[in-house]
Amino acid sequence: MKNQQWSGVLAAIIVCATIVFAIGKLQQTGISIEDNRKTAAAESTIHPPSPQEKSITVSGEGKIMVVPDYVRIFAGVSELAGTTKQAQDLANQKLAKVIEILKKNAISERNYQTSNLTFRPEYDWSDGERKLIGQRVEQTLDISIPEIDSQPERVSRIIDALGAINRLEMHSVSFDVKNKKELFHRARILAFEEARSKAEALAGLAGLTLEKPMMISENGENAVPTPYFRTTPQMAMAAGAAAPVLPAGELDVIVSVKVVFAAK
Questions:
Q1: Distance CA 236, CA 246 (A)
Q2: Number of Cβ atoms within 10 Å of the Cβ of 135
């Protein structure tokens, strides 16, 4: 019995030694043994691709046309004198005339303010050398004239009076609207409605059903002031014509949007 047990143990040892020897040889040759059952199972699993989402991208523009309710004027003076104080005094004299005209026409002080004031030396370079000729002072007033819808004649009266001031510079005159928030809101609604109408038409042509918006972006708000160009009263008199009443026209308040709608 003992001989049989020892024979079995010896056989098992020989088998194990043979396996170890074989594995060592395989490793020396770079051959490896792996269990690929899990990998094969994973590769055999097929995930169906998700259906591609359909979308329609359109743009829309909303425009509101309104009558301006105020005029904005940038008027300035530029004076040259021997000293800065002398130049400033000359500028103040002209600006005092401007303010007097505004007060006579019931323009409140809160409707005008200095927007620019500069002092600088001025030189003559005609002989190839720098020669100081004086000090220059420039000052610009930002003037708002409200209620032009109810008092249109006041605007023409003020501009004519300002134009009579010698060497007063009228940089710009433009018509605008004070409160644009409600106007932009209305224009935004119109812009989106136009975009949706375009998307519905395209969906119908493509045989699709339009769904909710996936993305909405606003490209910007725009309200273009109406510029006004005129001659001075002196130029009008030379041409034998009276200064006309200012035509305010209409102001375009515009909002543009881009919308991406889902479709199926």
A1: 14
A2: 19
The closest alpha carbon to 139, from 116, 161, 157, 122, belongs to 116
Classify residue 24: in a domain, yes or no. Answer: no
Residue type, 257: V
- Alpha carbon distance 22, 42 (integer Å): 30
Same domain, 87 and 155: yes
pTM for this prediction: 0.60
pLDDT in single tens digits along all 264 residues of the chain = 545 555 555 565 665 556 555 555 545 544 444 444 444 333 323 334 445 689 999 999 999 998 888 899 999 999 999 999 999 999 999 999 999 999 999 999 999 999 999 999 999 998 888 999 999 999 999 999 998 878 888 988 999 999 999 999 989 888 888 888 899 999 999 999 999 999 999 999 999 999 999 999 998 777 665 554 444 444 344 334 455 456 667 888 999 999 999 999
Helix segments in 115-241, DSSP class H: 152-163, 181-206, 233-238
Number of H helices, E strands in the chain: 6, 8
- What does DSSP assign to residue 110? G
Cβ–Cβ contacts within 10 Å for residue 228, how many? 18
Chain mean position to CA 137: 35
Q: What range does the domain containing 207 cover?
A: 54-65+182-224+253-263
Cα 237 versus chain centre, distance: 44
CA distance 154 to 227: 17
Could you tell me if 75 and 140 are in contact, meaning their C-beta atoms sit under 8 angstroms apart?
Answer: yes
The tally of domains found in the chain comes to: 2
The closest of 96, 92, 88 to 137, measured between CA atoms, is: 88
